[in-house]
Amino acid sequence: MKNFLTAQQVIVLREAHYDSKFRKQADRIKAILALNRGLSYEQTAKLLLLDQTTIRRYEKEFKKIGVDGILESNHIGSDPYLTVNQQHELTLHLKENTYQKVLEIVVYVKNTYNKIYSIEGMTHLLHRLGFVYKKTKVIPGKVDLKKQEEFKKEYQKLKQSKGIDDKIYFVDASHPHHNNRPFYGWIYKGEEKAIKTNTGRKRLNLNGALSLENMDITVLSEETINAHAMMRLILTLEEKQPTGDIYLVLDNASYNHSYELQLFLEDHPRTHLKYLPAYSPNLNIIERLWRFFHEKHHDKYFEKFKEFETTVLTFFRNINQYNGELKTLLTDSFQTLPV
């Protein structure tokens, strides 16, 4: 009768055993878990300091009432455990409704199922059901999820239909500041760790293009990001890629729609612009590259701006040293925003 429990039932029983205040119920749970692991009646009885008759009775009860029955076979009085079906209902409810405090969930469960949990017991249940306590994520209020799905389909069509020499580039700008920012790290308790910072507000204006084919990355430093910066980026890409069409996936910044840039493209028929839906940074893969850069350089101090600029551009020129990390990070598995 080995492995007759599902993985979820094993987790439920282990947590129930941890929370159980009644020895008889705890023995029942341990007996069922031991039998599930393949231990014999004799081995289980010796392990729990019980007799084989009791172990067989527990098994018989389990076959009759199942996991829910075991959890509900408590001392006469209040029944604190949700059934598996009730846990499933609670999971669906919590996916739709976010509570800030465990106490609020305790009250909801009492009012809905007439089951009383302690805050500690409810916390264990939430972890067991797969919930963690973390910050909500901010997304643009005007994001159009339908248009995002349409873009994903169009991108897949382009990816499948493009020529062998054609390339798709994800394009965007980044503006790293010549300034250190405080960050989280493991610091010995009771001690403080200081980092140097600059008083200036100077920043770099980086214009980048990322092709997932062969992890081709191009980053240019500009005085400002405008239509002329886009033209220079296109010329650089055309020089690097002498044959085939160039598809640039980019956002709706005004310079990307400018008349000047459109006029320029008339003389560069190999280059095509593919605009992202509005408020869709999650669809622009190069955003991940910028975050990766900031993670690598969050604690570096540069007294002079020129030294900062040189180090940043050297990082991108030698980006292939991070290929192992970037291979799994830079993929077109687009992030799906929560509804």
The CATH architecture of the largest domain? 2-Layer Sandwich
Please tell me the total number of domains. Answer: 3
CATH homologous superfamily name of the largest domain?
Ribonuclease H-like superfamily/Ribonuclease H
- Average predicted local confidence, pLDDT: 85
**Which segments are poorly predicted (pLDDT under 50) over 5 or more consecutive residues?**
73-79
The radius of gyration computed from the alpha-carbon positions, rounded to a whole number of angstroms, is 30 Å
Element order: H for helix, E for strand: HHHHHHHHEEEHEHEHHH
> How does the major sheet shape up?
5 strands, mixed
* Main CATH class of the largest domain: Alpha Beta
- In percent terms, what proportion of residues is strand? 5-15%
How many angstroms separate the termini? Answer: 43 Å
Please tally the β strands and state the result: 5
The side-by-side strand order for the widest beta sheet comes to 3-2-1-4-5
Q: Classify the helix fraction into a percent range.
A: 40-55%
> What fold name stands as the CATH topology of the largest domain?
Nucleotidyltransferase, domain 5
- Helix segment count? 13
Question: Shape from CA axes?
Answer: elongated
Name the structural class.
Answer: alpha/beta
